[in-house]
Amino acid sequence: MDLDEILPEVGEYGAYQKLVIWLILVPAVFPCGFHAYNQIFLANVPDHWCNVSQSGEFQGDITKNFSIPVEVKVNGQVRYSQCLYIDNQSGRTPCQNGWIYDDTITNSVVSEWDLVCDKDFLVTLALVLFGTSGLIGNSFFGYIQDGMGRKPAYFIYLLIQCIFGIATAFAKSYTIWTIFRVGVGFTIPAILGTPYVLAIELVGPSERTVVTILINIAYSLSLVSLSIIVWAIRDWRWMALTTTLPFLLLFLSWPLLPESPRWLLSQERYEEAEKILLQMARINGKNVPTDFLSKYKLKKVDQLKNRNYGVRDLFRSKNLRWKTIIITFLWFANTSVYVGLSYYAPSLGGDEFLNFFLAGAVELPTYLFLWPSMDRLGRRWTLCISMIIGGTSCLATFLVQN
């Protein structure tokens, strides 16, 4: 007998799991959505042009019309040059006295530190470092999650993210700001994976599809919520604080959030696992078999006789090796396209806040298809159909553009 056999007896998805998942683990997903994408708006690049006034203040459209050359963008749009002005003696000249920024967005790190023209690569560099730190952190935090447990691991991620997220608002230079953003990025996507792992380990096998869908819905809602916040708050410092401070409330859930019984049993912490399972059974109105732990201990002893498995075992047999390679490739392709489209959404044209809102909201209807199809069609067919639809849509977008 193992945990998958005992969970139907204590309730696979009863009142206990619903309370924990809906009230704690679903909100616990929001920090990842907020901090994974708020940098798009913290480093928003507003329309800008050379400051050509002698006094350091822009004098109006007449001066702009005479002093700033017009250029045609790749998409055919005509705009004022962002990096050149017309000098009476030398013609078109790079900006010498700074820039004037469109005041539609009150302030961003770009307008505060003039990260435009010959410095525009610094915005992309910060985003690359942010993403790279996430890859490193995800590998590192995996060991924390398995070594210390799901619960403490999540709160460690949350603490790091809140510290660096708040510190971001007080950065005095681009370098310091980038360092703080790397600190935030170090916890992404680990801070999303841990609540998900804990959620599926609290429910029975038959309910894992439901929980997976719920966590993904929560993530989509976090993007929708972020779009509303950044639309309402246009100053990047207040934006950084507003997308971080609310998550300090999640620390109040520490005494209410249980550790994963499955992880506790794997660590032979039977008494703690028994306490959680008894509480789960009581709230779900079920009874735990009295001989559960004794049977589990016997099975654990038998398992210890077998050798441990590692990453290398995924490549020992031809069948498993190909499955590992294919799944890894699919994950990489999905993640790259998803993140790329999400980051690019505000730049599609029109209202950037509405674009990002729609990018998050458009995911929600897809779960109406995924929910039943994952159980009826299976994971493989659902994945294939989704990839075909997604790939065709991306290709169609490219063809329409051209």
Automatic annotation (TrEMBL):
<feature type="transmembrane region" description="Helical">
    <location>
        <begin position="322"/>
        <end position="341"/>
    </location>
</feature>
<keyword id="KW-1133">Transmembrane helix</keyword>
<feature type="transmembrane region" description="Helical">
    <location>
        <begin position="210"/>
        <end position="232"/>
    </location>
</feature>
<keyword id="KW-0812">Transmembrane</keyword>
<feature type="transmembrane region" description="Helical">
    <location>
        <begin position="19"/>
        <end position="37"/>
    </location>
</feature>
<feature type="transmembrane region" description="Helical">
    <location>
        <begin position="383"/>
        <end position="400"/>
    </location>
</feature>
<dbReference type="Pfam" id="PF00083">
    <property type="entry name" value="Sugar_tr"/>
</dbReference>
<dbReference type="InterPro" id="IPR005828">
    <property type="entry name" value="MFS_sugar_transport-like"/>
</dbReference>
<feature type="transmembrane region" description="Helical">
    <location>
        <begin position="153"/>
        <end position="171"/>
    </location>
</feature>
<dbReference type="GO" id="GO:0016020">
    <property type="term" value="C:membrane"/>
</dbReference>
<feature type="transmembrane region" description="Helical">
    <location>
        <begin position="353"/>
        <end position="371"/>
    </location>
</feature>
<feature type="domain" description="Major facilitator superfamily (MFS) profile">
    <location>
        <begin position="24"/>
        <end position="402"/>
    </location>
</feature>
<keyword id="KW-0472">Membrane</keyword>
<feature type="transmembrane region" description="Helical">
    <location>
        <begin position="238"/>
        <end position="257"/>
    </location>
</feature>
<feature type="transmembrane region" description="Helical">
    <location>
        <begin position="121"/>
        <end position="141"/>
    </location>
</feature>
<dbReference type="InterPro" id="IPR020846">
    <property type="entry name" value="MFS_dom"/>
</dbReference>
<dbReference type="GO" id="GO:0022857">
    <property type="term" value="F:transmembrane transporter activity"/>
</dbReference>
<dbReference type="InterPro" id="IPR036259">
    <property type="entry name" value="MFS_trans_sf"/>
</dbReference>
<feature type="transmembrane region" description="Helical">
    <location>
        <begin position="177"/>
        <end position="198"/>
    </location>
</feature>
<protein>
    <recommendedName>
        <fullName>Major facilitator superfamily (MFS) profile domain-containing protein</fullName>
    </recommendedName>
</protein>
